[in-house]
Specification:
The protein is built from 3 helices and no strands. With 56 residues, it is mainly alpha-helical. InterPro entries: ClpP/crotonase-like_dom_sf, Enoyl-CoA_hydra_C.
Length: 56
């Protein structure tokens, strides 16, 4: 998910001003912070175990 969003940011960023690109990047980052995988990663880190990602 993160790689897909990074590629999207790069592709679209070539057509935007710096200010617009920074806003777009922040929006994509926010979307990633709301995923189930991000919650799993944080829980796994706190529990000192390997994360089990679901791609969601």
């Amino acid at each position: 998910m993160a790689v897909k969003r990074a590629k999207l940011a790069i592709e679209r960023g070539m057509q935007l001003s710096l200010q617009e690109e920074l806003g777009w990047e922040a929006e994509l980052f926010g979307q990633l912070c709301e995923t189930e995988d991000q919650s799993e990663e944080a829980s796994a880190f706190l529990e000192k175990r390997a994360p089990k990602f679901a791609g969601k």
